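Thread: sanity check for a docking pose with pyridoxal-5'-phosphate

Original post by kr_44:
Hi all, I'm comparing my docking run against an independent structure prediction. Below are the sequence and the ligand SMILES. Could someone generate the full complex and paste the structure tokens? I mainly care about where the ligand ends up relative to the chain.
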Amino acid sequence: MDHFALKHGVLHAEDVPLTAIADAVGTPVYVYSRATLERHARVFAEAVAGVGPHHIAFAVKANPNLAVLRVLARAGYGADVVSQGEMRRALAAGMDPAGIVFSGVGKTRGELEAGLRAGIGQFNLELEEEGVVLGEIASGFGVRAPATLRVNPDVDAGTHAKISTGRAENKFGVPISDAPAMFDRLARVDGLNLRGVAVHIGSQLADLAPLESAYRRVGELVGALRAAGHVISHVDLGGGLGVPYRPGDVLPTPAEFGAMVERVTRGWDVTLMFEPGRVIAGNAGVLLTRVIWVKPGVARPYVIVDAAMNDLARPALYEAYHDFAAVEPNGATFAANIAGPVCESGDTFAMGRVIDCVGNGDLGVLRTAGAYGATMASTYNSRALVPEVLVDGDRFAVVADRIEPATILAAERVPEWLK
Ligand SMILES: *Cc1c(COP(=O)(O)O)cnc(C)c1O
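Reply from moderator J.T.:
Ran it for you. Here is the predicted complex with pyridoxal-5'-phosphate included:
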């Protein structure tokens, strides 16, 4: 459930008509709903409330906006970060360093040092050598780094190949069959407090079965590690829950997920960690855009909007579907293609879709854009970096400025020898 709905014929974010945001900020612009973020955070927290000791770390890469992180920090969430930049954002949003998990397959030495200095709560190791280096740095600092070993359970998450992370051939984690021997070696590393295992098999999962089989494998591993004398106090179950993108999409609910986790992890006697991203932020945001032209096409018209693949990359990147709706629908529909102004044929949001009838100058939204939206934006085609707005009841604020092409141009220069 989200808080984007028609009121008096105009699409609103909570109590703010999107027309008012377009007037004040211009388009394209991402619009987030605080009430929706808080609702999703609460629903997820309630869904896993029964699993025993646990910690929820929002996957910052899904939506790293400072104000969004602040909303989630106030809801009691920690953060899952995959770079020093994300760590800095989580800290700036007021998150407790102890509640931050540092994931990522290519953490640099500098990032490990920065994480230790900041007092990050847990490092999820992606390879043995990383654990050795982390232990070395931590020893130098006179501390022990809390860490888990991320395992790759070799299950097919059944999602798009580009957001699948738990197959043996993916770059993430260590093969689960190698984990016991690696754990033995890493447990002896000075400066490392290797206290558990982590798993994350992919994103936009439409079915709980692959998660369940991954978790069962992790449960067996925990048993084996304990039998070998290791103390296992933490298991990080990652993120991945999908959200409905199309009308009629049916996905596992957080409550169903929570019930499955409770069933599978019963008796593990650990602190469980969750890293939800999309399920919290996905439906809490829309990309508000204005129609520039309706251009006649061979089979059907092209609705050329002022948002493009540089603002919302998911359709071009992995054929993602985003629902389109007019901000002031007139009741009519037509079959059209929706495309942005970028000079790539892949810059299309929909082909041959029946949508609200729109004309030049009309406003529309691409829905479910709150996760993996603005965070992936670029300035390709020398377009502006898209701004972000947060709505709270009947008020709203620009929470990320539009970065104009002139600002970006100002950071470039022609060397003396080329003038
Ligand atoms: C991306 C990612 C997540 C979040 O995934 P969602 O599908 O957005 O829930 C969680 N953990 C790790 C390690 C990730 O890389």
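The CA atoms of residues 44 and 159 lie 21 Å apart. Hope that helps with the comparison, let us know if your pose agrees.
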